[in-house]
Design a protein that fits this description.
The chain is mainly α. The protein is built from three helices and two strands; from the N terminus they run ααββα. It has one domain.
Length: 101
Amino acid sequence: MSSYQRYAYLTAIAASGTGVLALDQRLGTGVRGRRLARTVAVAVPVFLAFDLVGAARGWFASNPARNSLIVPPGIPLEEPLLLGFLTLVSVALRRGAERRR
């Protein structure tokens, strides 16, 4: 596997997050702001705690050849960014659904 391919996942997460924020700005759903920051600040550590327990117990593992960096006990660097992105998408979908009502 090429060294640049190890960062494709990280790049895809960052590009997707940027795209969601760009759509938010264009559609004016109001996702950005303190409310989003608080939601991400609460959700990501909670989900990371579950990931840490699962990795420490051996329930799941990450392949070092496919991730940019693995931090003990086995969490890839991309995981917090993915969790933040999933939280962002969830908030954006909810705000979009509220706006349609």
